[in-house]
Amino acid sequence: MAKNVLHELPALVEAGVISEEVAGRIRQYYQQREPSHRLFTVFSMLGALLAGLGVILLVAHNWDELTRLVKTGLVFLLLLTGQAACLYVRLRKPGSTSWRESAAAFLFLAVGASIALISQIYHIPGNLTAFILTWMLLCLPLVYTMPSSVVSMLYIIGITCYACERSYWSYPSATAYLYWGLLLGVVPYYYALCRRKADSPLTALHHWLVPLSVVTALGTLSRTTEELMMVAYMSLFALLYLAGNIPFLKEQKTANNGYLVTGAAGTLILLLILSFHGFWQHWHEQDFAPARLFGSVEFVAAFVLSLLAGVFLYRLYRDKPWYTIDPAAYVFILFAATFALGVSSAGAAILLVNLLVLLLGTYTVVQGAGRQDLKLLNYGLLIILVLAVCRFFDTDLSFALRGSLFVLAGTGFFLINYSMFRKIKANKS
Amino acid sequence: MINRKLSLSMLVAVFLVQLYVPASMIAEREEILNTGKAYKFKTAPVDPNDPFRGKYIALQFAENEFFAGPKQAWQYNEPVYVHLSADAEGCATIQGVSREAPGEDTTYIKAAIDHALDNGLIGIAYPFDRYYLEESKAYEAEESYRASLPNTTQTTYALVMIKAGDAVLKDVMIGDVSIKEVVEKNRREQDSP
Q: Does A134 touch chain B if contact means CB atoms closer than 8 Å?
């Protein structure tokens, strides 16, 4: 960036855009500015992570030549090396992010390698779930005592793997309720990070990891009435979308606002999946006893998430007229009603879900046109296009009619873009 | 300053916990290995792997079912105390199962229910079903086991040390020779002209 600016200076002076004096001051500014440590921070963290992962792989080789005593000694050598590095950083380099994060990341992986080594030496069976849980519990305090954002992120990834291993990847599976408690363990740190280092890239990574982890783990609650998870997921995506709209996150770049993107994309993908008749046919044919349905963990999840999203919606938009609110924020309410309707009529539910997608697409197109934002406009058109493509595969309409509709949609796509482009150009000139 | 001291002492406390947990795991198992009673469990090994702990041979035991009677409704994964005795060859046989720990005069293992049938037959999941090996040896160990099958005079068994309900797998043997040594011996034989 600095190189580019300095390279452009002579041309800018020659064109009379800036004076020689200003050019001189710009040169002086870049010469005096301290070199950026960001790259060093990233590479040192990567180095520590790679070294730690290397140690785990070396441990996994299981060296037969080493006696039990030597291997036991290695357990403590690994731990003490990591701990010594952390202590050194805390005492001698307290202000250095790169040192702190690298040492903490190494210790995090060293703890994992040590437990793995003990399992090997004594042939402890323990499945992967117990292994990851022990590892995460031993490392959670590091998040606060170092303090370390990298360990916090590794911890979030670790507890997500724990939930997946316990519920998705093991047979017979069990519900990973503990995941939610483990997630709460890192919340105070995340909150403090948002307050103190709102613009840090590590904070932005947290804004992605947390929603993705929650989205991954919510499905682990699914047991015998998994159909209700559709409502739970829709409300979760609404909650994430609304969270992404609180002023603190709204001010961030879209690429850093994982809540907003996950919420919007999740809502849309789920609606598109449910715009096919398969799920609704199945849901319509179900005959659940009310006690079983309302007493299920899936119902509790759906209820709690819908309630939370409702409270969030009210707090964020209470002063705005309803028709100005983005439908992605309240689509979960309409979906819950559609879901209830689906019990008696699958056809009506399918029609309503299609209309919900159309509503989202149209609102986005209108917003894009109003703000003269080509990206937003095309995003809205894309939503409508994807819906049309989905209908391409399962509708009963004739080929001729579908063909005509697609030609019309394509032409509309082109014409709307062209007129918008002309409008923007006219405004600029 | 006080804050820094407090935070440093908390960090040191975390370090101590991180050291204590593996140390207690090691001490507990060393105690069983040194002072426990040895039992043989007839077994059939196969080699899968674990992303963190490397290659191992998964052990399935011949003595893994017991008729507990239809009156006791056992659930999957429920803890169970398995009462053991040794036959003439020193191999473990199940004498009974209970939900409470038996007296000190009975040798027993804390295990879990693997499956339970309506007729009262239960399957036992022992707490020692993995034997970790150097990565290149796991497959060869499985091959050695297969090769030993036609020889009916050889039994393959897991040597397990048991003390007060806890167990540590010490070795896996093919005909009284450690499976690691069998693999090494086979390698030497293949290398020699």
A: yes
